Amino acid sequence: MSVRHTLSLYRSRARLMRSAALGDPVARILAMPRGSAGYARYEKVRARGELVRGRSGTYMTVSHRVCNEVLRSDAFGAVPTAASKHVLTPTNGRLDRLVHPLDDSFASVDPPEHPRLRKIVAPFFTPAAMRRLRGFVDEVIDDELDRLDRPERLDLISEFAVRVPSRVICEMLGLPPSDHERFVRWGIEFGATVDGARTPGDLLRTRTLLTEMTEYFEDLCAVRALSPGGADMVSAMVAATEAGEMTRRGLVATCQALLIGGFVTTANIIGNGVVGLMQHPAQRDALLADPTLAATLVEEVLRLEAPAQYSVRIALRPVTVAGHSLERGTPVVTLLAGANRDPEVFPNPNALDLSRPNSRDHLSFAAGIHYCIGAGLARMEGEIALKALFARFPDLRIEGKVAYCPSRVIRGPYVLPIRPR
Ligand code: HEM
Fold it and tell me: Is residue 377 in contact with ligand 1, taking CB distance under 6 Å?
C-alpha cells in the first residue's frame, strides 16, 4: 500500500469521524461500530426528514416512499462500493486489477448493459427453476438437521445457517462442496470489508479477500472452459464469455457475487429468524401451532433485520427528490433497514408480528432494476429451513452470547449458540 493511499485513507476517516462527532446523522451511521444495530441512529435520520443531507454532500433516506422512488428511478445509477476505492493492485499480471464481486458484476452496471448481463443467469432463478430445485433444498435441510440432532450446545450459524445456502449455491454454480470452509471465511471477510476500508488493516483484509476470490474463480473458469457444456451457472457464464457476451472481469466478478450473495445474506434469515422468535415467544408459539406461518415469518424477519442494511445510488443527471434539488453525481444512501421500519407503512414497526398483512412490502431485496435476483431462492431456503428447524426442535433455545457479523452493511448473527433439545 502506498503512502498516498494510507494518507488518503486516514484523511477520509478523520473527516467522517469529525462529522459524526458534530452530530451529522449521515456520518454517524457510516462511522458506527461494525456489528452494532443502527436502528436508533436511523430514527435520528427519520426525525430530520424524508431526505437528509450529510456534511459531505451525501444524502440519506429512511423513508419507504423515497427509497422506493430512488431505487426505481432511471435518474439514478449504481455506484461502486466504498470497498474497492483503494484496491487497485494488479493480480499477478493476469487481470489489470483485482475483481470485486459487486463493483465488477452486473450489480454495479447501469442500462443498457445491465439487463443484457443479468439475462445470462436469470434462467437459473425463475419460479420454474426454483420448483425444480426445491427437492434438493429439502434434502440438504433434512441432512443438515440430522447433524444438529445432538444434546450439546452448538453454533447454529456455522453448523446449519451457513451450511444450507452454501451447499445450495455450490450446487447451482457447480462448485466443489469441499471448498465450503474457505467460502464461509470469504463470506465473513466480505461482510467486514464491504462498507469500505477505514484503516490500513481493513485495506489489507480487502486485498487478501479479493486476491483469493479472483484467483480461485479465474482458475475455475479456465478449467470449465476446457470442458464446456455443463448445466451449472459457471458453465453458462463461461459459455457467454466465450461468445463475447461477457468480459473475463465480469465473469469472475459475477461468480463471486453469486457465491457470496448466495449464502451470506440467506444465512442471516435463519439466524435473525431464530433470534427474533426467541425474543417474541408468542410468535414462536404461533409458528409451532401453524407451521404455514413460516413464509410470513421470513418476510417479517427480512423486514425487521434487513440482511443488507443499505444500498447506494448516484444521480446520473440533475433530479428533484423529496423537494431537494440534487446535482449530477450526488450519492444517495437508501437505508433499506430504516425504510422497513417506516411507521407510515408498517404500524408498530419494531414488533415481529406474524399477522402483519403487508410484511412483504419491505425493501430488503431493494427495488427497481437491481431487485435481488436471488430473492425467490432466499425466500424458499429461509421458509423451508425455519419451518423444519422448529418442527424438529420445538424446544430449541439460545444459550450464550450472540455475536453479530462485524459489518455496517451485513446484519445477522455470525455466532449463535443454541441447544437444540
Ligand atoms: C436474504 C437474502 C438476500 C438479501 C437480503 C439480498 C439483498 C440484495 C439487495 C438489497 C440487492 C440490491 C442491491 C442494490 O440495489 O444495490 C441484491 C442484489 C443482488 N443479489 Fe441479493 N440478496 C439475498 C439473496 C441473494 C441470493 C440467494 C443471491 C444469489 C444466489 C443473490 C444475488 C444477488 C445479485 C446477483 C444481485 C444483483 C442484482 C442486480 O443488480 O440486478 N442475493 N440482493
Answer: yes
- Give the number of residues written for the chain: 421
How many domains does the chain contain in total?
Answer: 1
Q: What is the reported pTM?
A: 0.94
Q: Is the CB of 162 under 6 A from ligand 1?
A: no
Is the CB of residue 106 below 6 angstroms from any atom belonging to ligand 1?
Answer: yes
Going by alpha carbons, the residue nearest to atom 21 of ligand 1 is: 372
Q: How far is the CA of 191 from the centre of ligand 1 (A)?
A: 14
Q: Which domain holds residue 197?
A: 3-419
Residues 146-156 have pLDDT tens digits of: 999 998 999 99
Pairing label, strands 59-61, 331-334: parallel
Mean pLDDT, to the nearest integer, of 193-220?
88
CATH of the domain at 378: 1.10.630.10
- Report the candidate in 1, 246, 366 with the shortest Cα–Cα distance to residue 9: 1
378 lines ligand 1 (CB under 6 A): yes
User: Where do runs of H (alpha helix) occur along 243-280?
Assistant: 248-279
